[in-house]
């Protein structure tokens, strides 16, 4: 997030797109509902009428995969009606003329046709967003998990920049991060192209710094993205895979492909709390401690580094991932793995990542710190870009994007579009939440949501069993006819391995970020 | 700032303060039941009655005026409070010992303060109507015989999480807290967050797993990216309860259903407890030394035969920063950048 969670209370308007906020980030959902009660305006855009849509002033029920068309339509209205912030554009940005020239070419009616949302509604949403100051954008995977994910985010950034909603309280472009430490995993360099602190592996300076610090020769060529590792294995280019705390056999798109790929490796290590679906494919399975059984830090969605603490001992011989990695590193004869305490690793991170230079365990003892935190007295940075942007000129650069349709659309063989997401009661592949009898009682099994119209056409009622087929696989699940979906769209969670939505999903990737198009795939449904 | 006296003590408070705020500031106890600091005041329980300049008012809703004279313990105040507490107790379940809130119940505290005696109780006690406990929710139940109709749960559901699943239903003696259509709570729009449960002043709303922790450890919730501050309640070697950390600037104590109740996995019997190595297709238990040596040898072997770029590692958005850091350090120290995690999933 460019802004902080506490900022939410200060927004005069919200534009929530592709985020089922009250189910996936419930406590932020509470904040939004409270802010709306106190008078903030709310625009919600989603293919499904999610719970947060009930609080919306304008609800835009767009077709899956048409986000950019909707956002560009809004930007077009803002430009045409002179609702953009010229002072901000002049003082803090570059490239607006080219961006505006591209926007002028856009036909709002065409965007309405693509998205399935009336032009007047798009215009109303645009006015609400632009006329309320400050206005915050919140999004999640509904924006990013598309072959056009990067463009979607760029389009949102354009909207926030042209209205001057960056670098101030209550504004911002705020991706709500899905997992407790997805931000931290990125920040600490668990990415193929960057070292900790987003220092490119291809930068000679950064590469030298890390190669020296680690006493190893680290290549300057970026590694393989996770979503491409399985293809690489199928092509025979990868032989060993170490998987820590992941369950790709349920969470990756196009599961059959993942299963085939896992069988190709000479070595697969799985390190987890439970014997997951992925563990079946392992050569070695290592028992790991849970968060409650170890010390360490996590970064939340607002870039806040916070301490987790050990409450109980790990069961049996299970060890923390930290201990395991230190021991393995030593067994491999690598340098710098003789740590006994995670605080020592944090010290090393702070030395190598300038954005975390001021972060120490002592400072985290009472509450967290939002990075960038540049030295030991720096208070942290809850809001980014207050004075300048990260480019050399210090100015934001507008970049025009065009709408690209999703890779798969309906046809006569696969007449429905499936989109996926989470339920309030479960988390990801259910490894943890499905161990709770109570959570299981509240949401026991997959029930594919289908519009009342489609259900009627297919002769389906609640709990009927159906077979869903896509170009990649098939699953069997129950159904639930709902009013929340438009005809032609169905919704499935990805929590239930026995009705695994990812047997069906498309592994087509965004060319820049490598994110798969998990939110749009064409399927057919038959009653069984 | 405004000046007033409470029971002869001079108190100075900010404009807009209530008499209850002023009493709190002065350290003077005024019993309350329907008041909760997180919620707008309601003034429904009539327990906080005080005398302000000769007028009997509810302290929680009375704004302080400059020069006000407040008396919290006059004979008249005592009588009114006593009557109001007795009215609540008259139809309240009397089995305190088996109640999970025994000793932490606000009604007990108030009864002791106003001076309810067993003699008086004998006189006022009506038989309590048998009302079925709503046991539909797996995490908390509602016992109407312990409900004092303070409305805190209703206001919590409306003000804290904005769900508004609850309201008062029926009238007079039959008034109760219920959901739309008086259905079991599980069949309502309740999101099971338990925010009402933690604010209930009595045992009307109670956890289905009522184990009381013996110590608490501050941590961060392990589910989504909000990063709510939590306290892990430990008894023996088990995490038995999770509560929201009020001190956290992220969630200010609020939690969702998973964050409050979804922690059975920690103590679950299916947890992996020993390293396993697949031998002729069958997983067999191994020592750490054996398992790590096996992995290290294989990794070196692959590197020697196919080069470091034949190795790859998938790190985890569920692990700590230090663990992710060490993971990428390990893979990179092997001589490849083939390290990533599930950020895209």
Strand content of chain B: 15-25%
CATH architecture of the largest domain in chain A: 3-Layer(aba) Sandwich
CATH class of the largest domain in chain A, named Alpha Beta
Quickly count the domains of chain B: 4
Structural class of chain B: alpha+beta
For the largest beta-sheet of chain A, the strand count, sense and barrel status come to: 6 strands, mixed, barrel
Q: How helix-rich are the residues of chain A, as a percent range?
A: 25-40%
CATH topology type of the largest domain in chain A: Dimethylsulfoxide Reductase, domain 2
Tally of individual domains of chain A: 4
State the strand order across the main sheet of chain A: 16-20-17-19-18-21
- Top-tier CATH class of the largest domain in chain B: Alpha Beta
Walk across the major sheet of chain B and give the strand order. 2-1-5-3-4
Keywords for this entry:
heterodimer, A: 528 residues, alpha/beta, Dimethylsulfoxide Reductase, domain 2, Rossmann fold, 5-stranded parallel sheet, 21 strands, B: alpha+beta, Ubiquitin-like (UB roll), Alpha-Beta Plaits, N-terminal domain of TfIIb, 5-stranded mixed sheet, 3-stranded antiparallel sheet, 20% strand, elongated
Explain this structure to me?
- The complex is a heterodimer of chains A (528) and B (345).
- Chain A is an alpha/beta fold and 528 residues long.
- Chain A has four domains: 5-176, Dimethylsulfoxide Reductase, domain 2 (3-Layer(aba) Sandwich); 178-220 and 289-376, Rossmann fold, CATH 3.40.50; 224-287, 3-Layer(aba) Sandwich (Rossmann fold); 416-527, Barwin-like endoglucanases.
- Helix content of chain A is 31%, strand content 17%.
- Chain A contains 19 helices and 21 strands.
- In chain A, the strands form six sheets. In chain A, strands 16-20-17-19-18-21 form a six-stranded mixed beta barrel. In chain A, strands 3-2-1-5-6 form a five-stranded parallel sheet.
- In chain A, a hairpin with a 4-residue loop joins strand 18 (465-469) and strand 19 (474-482).
- In chain A, helix 3 runs antiparallel to helix 6 (108-115), helix 3 crosses helix 7 and helix 3 (67-80) runs parallel beside helix 9.
- Chain A is globular and about 65 Å long.
- The mean pLDDT of chain A is 97.
- Chain B is an alpha+beta fold.
- Chain B has four domains: 2-123, Roll (Ubiquitin-like (UB roll)); 129-207, Alpha-Beta Plaits (2-Layer Sandwich); 215-261, N-terminal domain of TfIIb; 276-344, no CATH class.
- Chain B has nine helices and 16 strands.
- In chain B, the strands form six sheets. A five-stranded mixed sheet of chain B has the order 2-1-5-3-4, sandwiched between helices. Chain B has a three-stranded antiparallel sheet with strand order 10-11-12.
- In chain B, helix 9 (321-333) links the parallel strand 15 (311-314) and strand 16 (339-340).
- In chain B, helix 2 crosses helix 3.
- Chain B is elongated, with a radius of gyration of 28 Å.
- The two termini of chain B are 55 Å apart.
- At the A-B interface, helix 2, helix 10, helix 12, strand 9 and strand 10 of A face strand 10, strand 11, helix 7, strand 13 and helix 8 of B.
């Amino acid at each position: 997030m460019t802004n902080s969670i506490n900022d939410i209370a200060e927004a005069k308007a919200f534009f929530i797109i592709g985020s089922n906020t009250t189910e996936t980030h419930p406590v932020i959902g509470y904040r939004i509902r409270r802010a709306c009660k106190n008078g903030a305006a709310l625009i919600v855009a989603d293919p499904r009428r999610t719970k947060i849509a009930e609080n919306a002033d304008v609800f835009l029920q767009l077709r899956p995969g048409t986000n950019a068309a909707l956002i560009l339509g809004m930007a077009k209205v803002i430009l045409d009606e002179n609702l953009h912030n010229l002072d901000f554009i002049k003082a803090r940005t570059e490239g607006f003329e080219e961006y505006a020239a591209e926007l002028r070419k856009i036909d709002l009616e065409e965007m309405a046709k693509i998205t399935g949302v009336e032009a007047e509604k798009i215009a109303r949403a645009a006015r609400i967003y632009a006329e309320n100051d400050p206005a915050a954008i919140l999004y999640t995977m509904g924006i990013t998990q598309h072959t056009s994910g990067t463009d979607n985010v760029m389009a949102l950034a354009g909207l926030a920049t042209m209205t001057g909603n960056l670098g101030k309280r209550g504004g911002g472009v705020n991706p709500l991060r899905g997992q407790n430490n997805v931000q931290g995993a990125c920040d600490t360099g668990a990415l193929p192209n960057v070292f900790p602190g987003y220092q490119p592996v291809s930068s000679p300076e950064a590469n030298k710094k890390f190669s020296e610090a680690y006493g190893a020769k680290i290549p300057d060529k970026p590694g393989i993205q996770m979503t491409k590792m399985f293809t690489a294995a199928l092509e025979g280019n990868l032989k060993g895979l170490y998987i820590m705390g992941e369950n790709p056999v349920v969470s990756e798109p196009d599961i059959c492909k993942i299963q085939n790929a896992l069988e190709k490796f000479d070595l697969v290590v799985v390190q987890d709390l439970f014997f997951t679906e992925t563990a079946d494919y392992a050569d070695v399975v290592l028992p790991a401690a849970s968060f409650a059984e170890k010390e360490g830090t996590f970064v939340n969605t607002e870039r806040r580094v916070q301490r987790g603490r050990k409450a109980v001992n790990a069961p049996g011989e299970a060890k923390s991932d930290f201990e395991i990695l230190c021991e393995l590193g030593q067994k491999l004869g690598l340098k710098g793995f003789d740590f006994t305490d995670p605080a020592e690793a944090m010290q090393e991170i702070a030395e190598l990542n300038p954005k975390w230079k001021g972060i120490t365990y002592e400072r985290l003892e009472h509450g967290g710190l939002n990075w960038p935190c540049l030295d030991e007295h720096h208070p942290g940075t809850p809001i980014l870009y207050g004075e300048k942007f990260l480019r050399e000129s210090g100015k934001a650069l507008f970049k025009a994007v065009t709408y690209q349709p999703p890779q798969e659309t309906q046809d006569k063989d696969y007449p429905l579009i499936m989109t996926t997401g989470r339920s309030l009661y479960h988390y990801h592949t259910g490894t943890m939440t499905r161990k709770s009898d109570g959570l299981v009682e509240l949401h026991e099994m997959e029930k594919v949501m289908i519009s009342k119209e489609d259900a009627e056409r297919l002769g389906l009622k609640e709990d009927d069993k159906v077979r869903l087929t896509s170009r990649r696989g098939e699953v069997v699940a129950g159904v639930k006819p709902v009013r929340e979906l438009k005809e032609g769209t169905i919704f499935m969670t990805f929590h239930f391995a026995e009705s695994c939505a990812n047997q069906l999903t498309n592994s087509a990737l965004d060319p820049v970020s490598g994110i798969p198009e998990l939110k749009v795939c064409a399927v057919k449904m038959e009653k069984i | 700032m405004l000046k007033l006296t409470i029971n002869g003590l001079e108190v100075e408070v900010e404009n807009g303060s209530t008499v209850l705020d002023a009493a709190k500031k002065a350290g003077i106890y005024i019993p309350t039941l329907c008041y909760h600091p997180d919620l707008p005041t309601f003034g429904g329980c009539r327990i906080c009655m005080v005398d302000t300049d000769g007028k009997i008012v509810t302290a929680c809703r009375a704004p302080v005026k400059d020069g006000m004279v407040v008396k919290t313990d006059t004979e008249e105040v005592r009588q009114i409070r006593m009557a109001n507490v007795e009215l609540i107790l008259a139809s309240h379940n009397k089995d305190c010992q088996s109640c999970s809130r025994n000793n932490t119940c606000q009604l007990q505290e108030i009864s002791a303060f106003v001076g309810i005696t067993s003699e008086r109780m004998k006189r006022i006690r009506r038989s309590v109507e048998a009302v079925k406990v709503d046991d539909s929710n797996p995490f908390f139940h509602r016992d109407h015989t312990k409900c004092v109709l303070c409305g805190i749960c209703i206001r919590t559901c409306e003000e804290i999480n904005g769900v508004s699943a609850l309201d008062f239903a029926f009238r007079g003696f039959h008034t109760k807290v219920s959901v739309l259509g008086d259905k079991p709570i599980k069949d309502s729009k309740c999101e099971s967050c338990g925010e009402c449960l933690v604010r209930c002043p009595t045992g009307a709303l109670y956890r289905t797993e009522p184990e009381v922790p013996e110590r608490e450890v501050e941590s961060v919730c392990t589910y989504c990216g909000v990063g709510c501050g939590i306290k892990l309640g430990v008894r023996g070697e088990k995490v038995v309860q999770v509560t929201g950390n009020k001190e956290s600037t992220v969630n200010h104590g609020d939690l969702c259903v998973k964050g409050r109740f979804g922690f059975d996995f920690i103590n679950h019997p299916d947890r992996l407890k020993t390293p396993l190595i697949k031998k002729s297709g069958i997983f067999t238990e191994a020592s750490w030394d054996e398992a790590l040596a096996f992995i290290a040898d294989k990794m070196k072997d692959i590197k020697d035969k196919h080069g470091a770029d034949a190795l790859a590692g998938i790190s985890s958005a569920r692990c700590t920063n230090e663990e992710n850091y060490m993971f990428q350090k390990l893979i990179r120290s092997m001589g490849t950048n083939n390290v990533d995690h599930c950020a895209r999933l």
